[in-house]
Design goal:
50% of the residues lie in helices and 11% in strands. With 385 residues, the protein is an alpha/beta fold.
Length: 385
């Protein structure tokens, strides 16, 4: 009997359930916070969730200051501005209220402040020397799982690509995971973030760093997201569907944070940074192409993925498994209104060499089940045109 290789697992303390957001004051007080930097964005503030957080902090006598000058794909310059505000206001705890962009920006603000350097210094794995200040994350989307992961994705503005920062130092201290905060998510963002969660789970399950602990979470996430994404998309006020989607996102986060990801994310980081596109949409464009590329190296794992998606793949060849999964993903994309071609977003074939160059250097590529050359990355981008 083969022995499992040794693995390290990291996860924060998290509270899951309706109303979890109201615990922010309790946890900030336990951290002995005097002044909190709240990182959020215009959409979340307009939805009314900020008021709950400010009131919870105020009830326990904690002051707060707001940083909201960030864009949907957070950029290095925005991180530096947030870190400057944190220092200027003499804050001692960070609360992130929003989707993956907000939470990633908050993570980066913390480590920039602690290390007093440019955010680009942290690119890659385990490059953070000094951990940031205490961080509480409250997600308002069901997809990125940034609230529990050791990943932080920031756009390198001069070079127009997304830097992957991977470090246990960016794992939040507390995650308050409240399904109610996803009720105001638009159908389009429900679709994009849901596909992101599905991609997290699939890539974690076939990762070369997968393990039995990770597998349980990855397979559960695939089933939860596939069974609930269309209902959450069609009926945004369905709290039960929202809860199942957020649970699926959480399970996927526990999986990919500890097994890393693969070629889909490496290529999506490059594409999303280059054209400032929604991350989930980039994953959706690339996922089935990468599955067809990987299938021979992880055929049994993809068969189990397909079965979790509700497909009957008993006795199917690897090629048929890849075709069936790709067909299901294509139909899902169509029903969710997500384009299936990069050209729809204005990508030109002349852009492919630059996209491939950055994707080939992404940390997520290391754990893809099949080794991928820069030329093969170019071919897959070409197939997705």
């Amino acid at each position: 009997m083969a022995l499992y290789p040794m693995r390290k697992f990291v996860a924060p303390e998290f509270i899951f359930g309706v109303g979890a957001r109201h615990r922010v004051g309790f946890y900030a007080r336990n951290m002995r916070a005097r002044k909190v930097l709240i990182v959020s964005d215009a959409g979340v503030i307009a939805a009314g969730w900020l008021k709950d957080i400010e009131e919870s902090l105020a009830r326990v006598g904690i002051d707060s200051v707001l940083f909201k000058e960030l864009t949907p794909n957070p950029k290095d310059v925005e991180v530096m501005a947030g870190a400057a505000l944190y220092a200027r206001e003499q804050c001692d705890v960070i609360v992130a209220l929003g989707g993956g962009s907000v939470m990633d920006c908050a993570k980066a603000i913390g480590i920039v402040f602690a290390n007093q350097c440019e955010v680009s210094a942290f690119e890659g794995a385990d490059q953070v020397e000094i951990p940031g200040p205490p961080l509480i994350c409250i997600p308002t989307t069901a997809g990125t799982a940034a609230e529990i992961s050791q990943f932080c994705i920031i756009v390198n503005s001069p070079q127009r690509y997304k830097m992957a920062i991977v470090s246990k130092s960016v794992v939040p201290d507390i995650a308050l995971v409240d399904p109610e905060t996803t009720l105001t998510l638009s159908p389009h963002l429900t679709a994009c973030t849901g596909i992101d969660a599905l991609t997290h789970a699939i890539e974690a399950y076939v990762s070369t760093a997968s393990s039995p602990v990770v597998d349980v979470h990855a397979l559960a996430a695939i089933r939860l997201v596939r069974e609930n994404i269309e209902q959450a998309f069609a009926e945004p006020a369905d709290l039960a569907a929202r809860e199942q989607m957020l649970l699926g996102s959480l399970q996927a986060g526990l999986a990919f944070s500890n097994a890393s990801l693969g070629a889909v994310h490496a290529m999506a980081h490059s594409l999303g940074g280059f054209l400032d596109l929604p991350h989930g949409a980039c994953n959706a464009l690339l996922l089935d192409h990468v599955i067809r590329f990987n299938i021979e190296e992880a055929s049994e794992r993809y068969r189990q993925i397909g079965q979790m998606m509700g497909l009957d793949l008993q006795g199917a060849s690897p090629k048929r498994c890849a075709e069936a999964i790709s067909r299901d993903l294509g139909h899902l994309r169509q029903r969710l209104g997500i384009p299936d071609r990069m050209a729809h977003y204005g990508v030109n074939r002349a852009d492919i060499p630059e996209l491939a160059r950055h994707a080939a250097q992404d940390a997520c590529l290391v754990t893809n089940p099949r080794h991928m050359t820069t030329e093969e990355i170019r071919v897959i981008y070409g197939e997705a045109m």
